[in-house]
Amino acid sequence: MGKPSDLVQGTLDLLILKTLTLDPMHGWAIAKRIQQVSGEVLQVQQGSLYPALHRLEQQGWIKARWAESETGRQAKFYVLTAAGRKQLEAEAANWSRLSAAINLIVSEA
Amino acid sequence: MGKPSDLVQGTLDLLILKTLTLDPMHGWAIAKRIQQVSGEVLQVQQGSLYPALHRLEQQGWIKARWAESETGRQAKFYVLTAAGRKQLEAEAANWSRLSAAINLIVSEA
DNA sequence: GCTGATACCTAGATTATCTACACAAGGTTG
DNA sequence: CAACCTTGTGTAGATAATCTAGGTATCAGC
Asked: A-side interface with B, Cβ within 8 Å?
C-alpha cells in the first residue's frame, strides 16, 4: 500500500480545494473522501490536514462554520470562497502543466 | 515562465535517473536537458541539482567519473548503476500511481 | 468500563527545494 | 586587455510542506 509517500508535496491544497467544490465538508470528511476517491492511494495525515485547512482559511480561500455532522456531532464545515475557486483554477492549471512536463520526461523512449 | 514553482517536490531524483538512461551526462547537461525536454517548464536550480546528484551517488544509484565535456572542459559524468535502474523503475511506478490518483480527484465532475 | 471510530488540534522533526553565494576556465567583444 | 557571458562545480542557509507522534473530547457498542 501507500508506503513510499502518502502525498505529492505541494498538492494537498489543490486536493482540498477541489474536494470542497462538491459540497461543504468538515476536515475529517475531506481526508476520508480524498482517500476514497483516490482508491486508497492518497492518505492525508491529520498533522498535514489541519494545518493545511488553517492555512487555506487564513488565505481566504475557504471559510469555516460549526455545524452538526452526519453523526450528530459538532464539526467544522468548510466552504470554498470565490477567491478559493480562483486559487483552485490556478493550482489545477499549474498541476497540469508540471505533471505533463514530468510525463514528457518519464515517458521518453 | 515557471513562476509558481520550478519542480514538483520529490520528482527530481526521478527526472535525473530517467535522463541518465539516455546517455552518461554531466550535471550541467542533465539540468539543461530536463529543461529542454520539458519545454522549459521544469527548471533545475544548481542548488537543487548538485546536492541531488551527490545524494544519488551516495545511494549507489549513479556513479561519477571525470571526463572531457563537449566543450573540451573537465566535467563530472554520471552513469546509471544497476541499482539506479531499479530505483528508477520504482520511482516511475510511484509517480504513475500518485499522479493518477491526483488526477482522479482533480478531474472529478 | 473499555475500546474503537469520529473529530479536532499542535509541537517538533524531517526533508526537498530554492536563494544566493563562491570559484574557475574558456570564449567573445569592445 | 578588460569586461562579460557561458559553462561547470559546489556550499550555506532559508523556506515550506509534510509526517510523526502526541493530546483532547464525544459517542456507540460490547
From this structure: 4-5, 7-11, 14-15, 18-19, 22, 34, 37-39, 41-42, 90, 92, 94-95, 97-106, 108
